[in-house]
Amino acid sequence: MLPYSLLDLAPVTEGSDPSQAFANSLDLARHAEALGYRRYWLAEHHNMPGIASAATAVLIGHIAGGTHTIRVGAGGIMLPNHAPLQVAEQFGTLASLYPDRIDLGLGRAPGTDQATARALRRYFDSADAFPHDVAELLRYFEPAQPGQAVRAVPGAGIDVPVWLLGSSLFSAQLAAMLGLRFAFASHFAPAAMEEALALYRRDFKPSKYLQAPYAMLALNVVAADSSAEARRLFTTQQQSFVRLRRGQPGLIPPPIDDIEAYWTPPEKAMTEAALACAVVGDAAEVREGIAAFASRHRPDELMLTANVFDHTARKYSFALAAQAFQDLAP
Asked: Are strands 215-223 and 301-305 parallel, antiparallel or unpaired?
C-alpha cells in the first residue's frame, strides 16, 4: 500500500486561539496514528495569525510526546532562519527523546514576509548559503571525531532522517546530488512538480543516507459525505489563499456557500492554478482522485493536507482519505 502521511500547520481558526490549535493538532495526530498515517509533519511559518507552528521543534516535541508510533517531523524547518548547529541540537534532542520517530525536512524559503525574515535572520541576508548549510547540518549528525571543535550535543551520531523540501528544481537537484529524500510542495506550488520529480529521479546519487531515490508529493484532500459539502469545506483553503495573495493573512475563515462571489476572475485563476493538486469530493471521488494522482506521478509516498475550518470535519476528512488508501491497497 502506498504510504500516506499528514501535513499540519496548526491552524488558528476564527473564534479560536493558538492554545486550541495545539490541542486540535495533538488530537488530530492521535487520530492519524490510529488511521495508519506514517508521518505527522508540521511546517515553520512566521507572522501569520492563522498558523501557530512557528516554534516547529517545540510543537514536534508536544506531538511526539502525546503519540506512540507515528513518525513526527518538520515539513519543514526553514534553514536560512537558523544556525545549522542549533537545528542539529534541537532535532538531536527530539530524536533522543523519541528514538526512530523524528524526521527533519529542510526548506530554503523564509516561510514569511521579508520584514519578518530580516527580524528572524538578524545578520543573514539570503538563502544563497542553503547548500553549504545543509552540508554543515549533516556533518553535525555524524559521530563526533577526536579533537572536533564544535559538535552537536545531543545530535552527533544520532540517526535523524533528513529530507529536502522544494517547490522548484533547486532542492530536487540538491537532494539528488546529496542522496537525500525529497518532498515537493505540490499542494500549493505544483507548476514544476513533474520536472522536479523527473530530475530528482534521473540525477539521484546513492549515498550513505539513501540507496535509491525516495520522493514524496503533497496533495490537498478534502473529503465529506457529499461532493457539495466537500467543495464547501474546501472554500476555507481557497479563501485563505486569496487573502494571502491580497496581503491580508488572518485567522482561518469558515467555509462559504458561494466562492464565486468572493474572488475576482484573476484571483480565481491564480488560486486554482496553485491548488491544482487537490482531490475534493465524497468517498468514491476521493478514492478515484488519489488513485489517479498516484498512478500518474508514481510518488513513493503521499503527504496529505486539509485546511478545514471545523475540527471534527477535518478529522472525518482525513479518516475518509485513509480509507481510500486502504481500499486501493492490492
From this structure: parallel
Report the C-alpha dihedral over residues 92, 97, 100, 101, rounded to 10 degrees. -100
Q: What share of the chain is helix, strand, coil (3-state, %, to 5)?
A: 45, 15, 40
The C-alpha angle with vertex 232 and arms to 226 and 233, in degrees rounded to 5, equals 90
Distance (Å, whole) CA 34 – CA 42: 18
- What is the Cα–Cα distance from 101 to 73, expressed in whole angstroms? 8
Reading the block at residue 92, the C-alpha cell is 538531536
Q: What long-range pairs does 127-133 form, CB within 8 A, spacing at least 24?
A: 127/79, 127/80, 129/80, 130/79, 130/80, 130/174, 131/174, 133/79, 133/80, 133/84
Q: What is the DSSP string of 230-250?
A: HHHHHHHHHHHHHHHHTT---
- CA-closest candidate to residue 169, choices 150, 185, 153, 154: 185
Q: Are 97 and 61 in contact (CB under 8 A)?
A: yes
Nearest by Cα to 197 from 208, 181, 221, 220: 181
Round to whole Å and give the CA distance between 155 and 153: 5
Q: Which three cell numbers stand for residue 140?
A: 553535525
H helical segments located in 246-310: 265-274, 283-297
Over the stretch 170-204, which tens digit does the pLDDT of each residue have?
A: 999 999 999 999 999 999 999 999 999 999 999 99
| Secondary structure (H, E, C), 99-168 | CCCEEEEEECCCCCCHHHHHHHHCCCCCCCCHHHHHHHHHHHCCCCCCCCCCCCCCCCCCCCCEEEEECC
231-273 tens-digit pLDDT: 999 999 999 999 999 999 899 999 999 999 999 999 999 999 9
